[in-house]
Predict the structure.
Amino acid sequence: MIISVLYLDTESHMYKGKAYSYKTDLDVKMLTRVLAPVGDEGETKRACVVALNIPITSIPKEIRPVLKTITEYDE
């Protein structure tokens, strides 16, 4: 499934900004907190799910091959 997330802003402690899309096999619902991979060094950011079941056709073609996968919940 493809989902969109908002990253946690550490200053305001709110999830906000631009939504980013990821693949996941986790059992997520709206507002599920996850750890989203960013960059190339294995870094993650705390994030919150804001959209579910996004069609692959809505993802730009140049992004599809590099779409990262969320594999962890934010406990």
Observations:
- The mean pLDDT is 96.
- The CA atoms of residues 23 and 47 lie 14 Å apart.
